[in-house]
Design a protein that fits this description.
Arc Repressor Mutant, subunit A, about 55 residues
């Protein structure tokens, strides 16, 4: 549950364009960019940058 909220916040930061994927992960509490990317993909089905590109259309 807590990790889902952190990942949703990271997604919001990425969509706002304020951060790159590694920094967004760090901002929500992930110390390892690879771990963040794996968890993000597990929840949203795509790596962070691909997901954001798709959502922005």
């Amino acid at each position: 549950m807590a990790s889902t909220l952190r990942l949703q916040e990271a997604r919001r930061l990425l969509l706002a364009g304020d951060f790159d994927a590694a920094t967004a992960g760090y901002e929500v509490g992930y110390d390892d960019a690879s771990h963040f990317s794996r968890e993000y993909k597990r929840l949203f089905g795509e790596p962070p940058l691909r997901d954001v590109e798709r959502l922005r259309g």
